[in-house]
Amino acid sequence: MPSPASILLLTQGHAGDRLGAHLAPALRQRFPERELVGLGGDGMAAQGVRLLARTDTASAMGYSGLLPALPKILRSIQRAAAATRRELPACVIAVDVWQPLQALHRAAPHLKPLPHVCYLPPGPNFIGPSRVHTAVSRAFGAIITPFPHQERLFREAGGNVHLAGHTGLLASRARYMPLPAEARENILALLPGSRALEIHYSLDVQHAAAEQIRERHPELVPVVCCADEGVARIVQRRFPKLQTSRDAREVLARARFGLICSGTAVLEAAVLGCPGVVTYHGSPLQRWEWNTFHVDKLARLRAAGVASPYVALPNIIAGEELYPERLDAAAGAIADSALTELAADPLQKRLSLDRVRDTLSWRDAGAVVAEQVERLLAAQ
User: How is residue 65 annotated by DSSP?
Assistant: First the structure.
């Protein structure tokens, strides 16, 4: 008797691999007879997911960041297409991916008719209805998000949408106890990002800003949070005197302040009670791309009430700038914002961050995803 068809998980980048790894146990518990296969990395493999291709290092920001990663992404898509052609899965779970899924459908049209579940849909910076909400609602049988504003927008677009926690935040909440505002340690957390380009262009600026901050606050000790050993080696080679940590969440749960590369790390900082400044530094090519293709479009979306005036997720959720956004800014501007924030009332700042935490859904994401997969399979 043939085995039941597998469940396919699609992820991209180190963060996607971690998200997929957190979903795997609940899926395995709900579907013990079905194999989990996917695109991911070591995190998913450690949770029993059979990898069809590695995509944990295939992550990019913008078209210019995509070009160096494109050969690896295309190879992964082709391997997934070939593997699923031989053994068709029962359903597809897209974890924080949208455009790569569209590319996979072109290479593997046999996957498109299958039931699809979307965990962490695109457009978290959208606060008004858009074509993205309509397209995603049509493409997926179920959509799961931790953000109430996304739940509302996808529901209004006709999507079958459900609230559930962000698996990374759920893991942080379960493992780490954030120190109270008055008991935070004299740590200045530096999070330059996880992608090679982010490290290359962000680390020097964050380090220079940290040195300027320490002129006023010499008690603060910079600690660079490294996504993997490769990042740690880069930091140690360029700044051998800097402390490093592979556990960013543990550092954020204790740190008094952070300089944080824009992304999910800012939301983790908010949940773990760490104030800070949001930074981002791209390559000259990325800056050209941003100014040429994105600035005017984003301005139109903001003027139409579709896109938030903010970039950092805590700011989008709160509707105010809890974390000053100093994107592509010089070290001096970042340090000035940090010094202003460090002079503010830490208890009031913590209350604001706690309100962000309380806005999010904390339902078990793996269980909700598994429920929706079961519902879609039963409806076939």
Answer: H
